Amino acid sequence: MRIAVASGKGGTGKTTVALGLAMVAEAVTLVDCDVEEPDDHIFLGGRGDLVEEVTIPVVRVDETACTLCGECARVCAYGAIAVLKDQVMVVDEMCHGCGACGIVCPVDAIFEERRRIGEVWLRERGGIHLYTGFLDVGQPLATPIITRLKALVGREGLLIYDSPPGTACPVVETVRDADHCILVTEPTPFGLFDLTMAVDMIRELDVPFDVVVNRDRDDFPDMDDYLRAEGIQVLMRIPDSMEIARLYSRGVHFVEEMPEWRERFSDLLVKVIGGGVR
Amino acid sequence: MTVKRLLVMSGKGGTGKTTVVASFAALADRPVMADCDVDAPDLHLVLDPDLVSSHIYHGLKVAQVDHELCTLCGTCVSTCRFDAISEDVHVDAIGCEGCGACVLVCPEIAITMAERVTGEVYSSTTRFGPMAHARLRAGEEASGKLVMEVRKLADDMAKETGRTLEIIDGPPGIGCPAISALSGVDALLIVAEPTLSGRQGMERVVGLAQHFNIPAMAVVNRSDLNQVEATTIEQWCRGQDVRVMDRLPYDDAATDAMIAGTTVVEHGEGPLAKALRTLWNDVCVALDNYCQEVKG
Predict the structure, then answer these.
(1) Contact, B149 vs B183, CB < 8 A?
(2) Domain B61-115 classified CATH 3.30.70.20?
(3) What global pTM score does this model have?
(4) Cβ contact (<8 Å) for A140 and B13?
């Protein structure tokens, strides 16, 4: 079964929930898909061992064959190719490796190389296999690393995907094939607005979902009003607690220090798994 | 008149970027605001903008198959690098990156590229000045392009109103939207959180700023949460030539102001409001210096 943990707003507690679930599971593959800012490994004692470098194809031009006709630049949807007076320039970071330029080149002057954009690491601790994707600093394309992570971990057993924040393409890539999604929010105006965007996205993807409210406090009733009106189930509420926040700041998950929460995360996991596989 | 552009980013989400930007907007002299967190935009919730105009933004296109013409030959299926065309030649709009390679290889000319709505761009006014913002359609690609669109709009607003300061609320992360937000700014203020995750997030943003050669400042928010970690972050920053600003305290006023729909500095004069005023003064001085260094 595949469970995605997403949020809309950043910093609401995706990692807290994903890790909490992983820590109470008997055997689990935790996949940190927030490849721009992965942090699950911080709570599990490090990133572990390098599994592979992630590469994507990038276009190169054989200057001895090229006639500078400009067809490649014309078809490139990403503006990655510029044909100058005496050479063709490729902006590597903008190339999506789609192959369109190679199709139109009349003299077969275009070939491809592989270009590194990040890494995948594996950390094993207890029953947890943590796969972490790291986007290289300066590289724009996060999604191919998420795609690669998913190919590496396969589809067997219990899989938990820790999603990036927001609702853009890396989030969709993370969440789209999940059996169930947990949206983590906080009861503030920012939390609520970003939750509504996340709910729109997840409904479009047609993935069953419910909500965990983190840093729960009682001075923002609009959140519960919204959840009630939309018929969204709240699976768990984590209180706004300085103790939990301080543990987190040191890289310690509160499940490890507060036994009552181990039980509550076990209940949460049972509830989510009870929803079944799509 | 040259325009100064200040971007606020964090790496890790939820460290308080928007809270800081909103108070800067209230304190600044005739600013233009831009919210570049297009898939989780929140600045409008405290700046309460009046919409002046909006336009639909079309980013990348999407392949469309005419099934009357399609012979199911499968050439497009094997050509697509993004596995976005199924065996029975249906396009998965979410997977399609709009490259058009399928159009080029289809022998029946059965595929065309259709416009797709990436999001909406809004031009608004607020009590502090004009504001450029946007909303990404759920799950769309090209959030980086939408960020560029917001940046362009903010530049136009500055020109039209003769304003010389842009305050830009950035997206989390270091990928495509973050890089778009960073392009052409004069300085970056990183809002860090005194946690191990926050430190790592910030280190990656500092790396990004160095990669693009943009001067960076850093401020630790909610510093009371972990003073030891706050110190570690600041020491690391100094070693990287990142200017360290005076810490911001943990203060419920951040959430209270948000719930009241206003900025922290308008909401009251507590410890956070005071610290934000000091921060803004210090950032202004630093920003002026950075801009002069470039000129000189």
Answers:
(1) no
(2) yes
(3) 0.95
(4) no
